[in-house]
Structure formats: structure tokens, C-alpha cells
Amino acid sequence: MRRPGESAGLPGKGVGRFASASPTSLPELSADEALRYARHMVLAEVGETGQRRLKAARVLVVGAGGLGSPASLYLAAAGVGTLGLVDFDTVDATNLQRQVLYGESDLGRRKLDAARDRLQDLNPHVRLVLHGERLTSGNALDIIAGYDVVVDGSDNFPTRYLVNDACVLLGKRYVYGSILRFEGQLSVFAGDDAAPCYRCLFRQPPPPGLVPSCAEGGVLGVLPGVIGSLQALEAIKLVTGVGEPMVGRLLVFDALRLRWREIRLRRNPGCPVCGDEPTVTELIDYDVFCGVAPADSAATAAGAGDAGDAGDAAGTAGAAGVAGGRPVADAGTAGSASPGGVGVPFEIEVAELKERLDAGEAVDLVDVREPFEWRIANLGEHGARLIPMGQVADRRGELDPEREIVVYCRSGARSEDVARELRSQGYDRVRNLRGGILEWAERVDPRIRRY
């Protein structure tokens, strides 16, 4: 059964709109373009027809971060005629370790503005379309419908499921990539009835907090260059009809050991989106689906990346891996007591903490991040002290169980785990600072450096 708007192209052999089109219907190359792409056209498998297919192609890159940077650079260099970018973030110093689209002069700029300047300088023949907004259930179909292939460089689960479902409904190829620490993954999903989709591999998202983000777990800077370049390669293969795309295959890359593993994938006939009897026939609220928003939320937005890393990344866990960024932890609501507590709310909002500190109330403020993070930004002026997460168990004697303790980290994820563990050990008055030091910088003190 073909989905609404699905192309009748050749499964696994390019993009139906033009991969099987007559060469006479493809745009001509100018003399300048013929010179620029000469090394492509000398390849018999690509030739002039393949290059003209690239010129006719419309490719969307979701997220202009770690994966989107190399992907967009190589797609522009290859001569993709229309290149769309979705991102709503700005460039910060932490991006420069791996997001090769940007430099020092771009700090504080919109990523899309910086990307436009760099890509136009690289290849003025490419038409750039900038979507400076979150990809949501309300706009995803309209945006994606205008493209032939979607390259996903997003860093969170809601966006991954949103992009997948939209691509299935529209019959578009979805080039998937993910990275975390030293591992990357790559595949091509959706696009025709024979191809598995992202939900065939990951039917349900993992519980919030199971997979860390790159900000929490780290990522080797060169890794997104490897995976993002492979995403561009797969998009080029799909457009030109050259080679064998990664449809039905998941590539797992171990950077530390320089090993590649391939896992065969099959379409799941019971898949709720691409199966024989799909139950998801329209876009849903993906924040709710992934557990990062309450069920009664009216929001349907799924970001192309968070403020720290639009497009970086992803989670990979275990042999088959788990892809996508770590959803924001939500351990209940501020004002609700956690299991094991004695009526003291498990979380505290930054505004409440600020009021209590200003009033001189006795609060033991403990930073559980790493020493290098403390050097970037800390709440030492408010009496905070550093006890890294890995040392808390050995240094519990430094904590007074009779005193109220507030633990914090970068975004509230690690400190949530610390707070739960301490409560299980009898520290019933320990609380987690919701949103961590990033929330403090956002709502209390903008002088705090974000990273």
C-alpha cells in the first residue's frame, strides 16, 4: 500500500522523481558547473546524467550541528541543486570542537546565517532554503514535502520519530545517522513499501534518561565528520541511482577500534507506521510519545536540536544501539515528593532556590559535575561546593542528612540520579535542581556561561 504522496520510484535505486527520468528532462549544466564537477563526471557510474540529477535534487538537512555540518558541506560541494537546512540555534564555543561549518567569527550568530555564508562561498550554484524554526507536527509535512531526501542530523528522540513518520507518510527516503562518545550509526529508512523505517528498528523510545546526550556523555569531535559524511554519501547515491543504498542495513561504527559492523534490518509488518495495517496515519505529539511532556500538553514541537547542540547527536547503546539524543529528564514535578522521601519535594525550581538563598536560608548546595565543568561555570558565589558524581558514594560523610541538600549538574540529569541514590541511602532532605545550571543561567543569572 503506497502512502499519501509516495513516489512510484524504484525501491532502493535512487529517488523516483528523477532517478528514472529521461535525461532530456533534467536541468543542463553550465560551463562553470561542468568544470567544477569534472571529477564527478569522469566517473562512468555518475557521468553527466548523474550530475544533472544532483542539480535537479532537493535535499533537506535537519539540524546544522555535528552531523549536519559535514553532510551539508559535502552535499553543497557535490552540486545538489536545492539544499534545505532546518535549525533554530545559535553558534556557541562548545560547537566548534566538531561543527565544522562554523568558526570563532560566528559565535553568537544564528547557525543558519553562518551556514548560508559558508555554503554559498563553497558553491554559489546551490540554492539554499533556510527553515529557521523547530520542526513540529504542524509544519513537518509541509516542509519535508518539498524535498526528495531527508538527512537527519537531529539530536533528540521526538524529532527522530517525527522525521521518520513524516517521511513514511510522504514516501521520502530518510538518511539516518547518530553519534555518541566513540560510536556512530547509519542507515536509510522509509521511502517505499519494501523498506523498513526507523520504528521497525526502534518501535518505542527508551525511557527518558536512559541514553545521555552528547553534552552529558561526550562525543569525539571527528566522529560526526565520519558519520555525517556517510549520510551525504547515501543521499548522493539515492539521488544518482549509483551503488547500493543502506536500505535494510544498519551500519555501526566503533571509532576506538576502527571497526564496522553491519546489521540486517527487515520491515516489520506490524509496524504502527509502515506496517500492513498502520495505526499511525497522521503526525502525533512526539514530546508526549517520547515521555518528555505530560500527556495533556498541547505542545507538538520537536526540536531539530537543543540549545547546546542542534544536530549532534544521538544515542547509541548496546549491540544494536539506541539512536537519538537524550530527552530532558522529568522526574516528576517540582513540588511532588519522590519515592522514598518523607514529604520533602524531590525537585526545586531555580527561582525558588534563588529566593531561599537570597533570604539566607541554610541550603547545602552541591555541584556533581566534573572539575572541568566547574571551571567553565559554577554557583560558588552562592556557597556551592564540588563533589563530582563519581565521588559522591565515597564522600557521603561530608553530607549532613539532617540538612537540606540541593544537588545540581549541567541540565539536571546526573544530579537527578545522585539525588535518587542519596534518598535511597537515607538522605531524605536531598533535592534536585530542575534544569541544572543551564536553567539557572536562563532564568536567574545570564552571566553564567552556557556549554
Strand content: 5-15%
How large is the count of helical segments? 15
Mind describing the biggest β-sheet? Answer: 8 strands, mixed
Unreliable spans:
1-14, 297-302, 305-341
Mean pLDDT value:
86
* SS elements, strand count: 15
CATH class of the largest domain: Alpha Beta
Count of domains:
2
Helix content: 25-40%
Shape: elongated
CATH topology of the largest domain: Rossmann fold
Distance between the termini: 47 Å
Alpha carbon gyration radius:
24 Å
Structural class by helix and strand composition: alpha/beta
Order of secondary-structure elements: HHHEHEHEEHEHEEHHHEEHEEHEHEEHEH
What is the level-2 CATH architecture name of the largest domain? 3-Layer(aba) Sandwich
Strand arrangement in the largest pleated sheet: 3-2-1-5-6-7-8-9
CATH superfamily of the largest domain: NAD(P)-binding Rossmann-like Domain
Would you give an account of this structure?
The structure is a single chain. This protein is an alpha/beta fold. It has two domains: about 25-290, NAD(P)-binding Rossmann-like Domain (Rossmann fold), CATH 3.40.50; about 345-445, Oxidized Rhodanese, domain 1 (3-Layer(aba) Sandwich), CATH 3.40.250.10. It has helices at about 30-35, 40, 45-55, 70-80, 110-120, 140-145, 155-170, 200, 215, 225-240, 285-290, 350-360, 370-375, 415-425, 435-445, and strands at about 60, 80-85, 125-130, 135, 150, 175-180, 185-190, 250-255, 260-265, 300, 345-350, 365, 385, 405-410, 430-435. The protein has an eight-stranded mixed beta sheet with strand order 3-2-1-5-6-7-8-9, with helices on both faces. A five-stranded parallel beta sheet has the order 11-15-14-12-13. The relative contact order is 0.13.
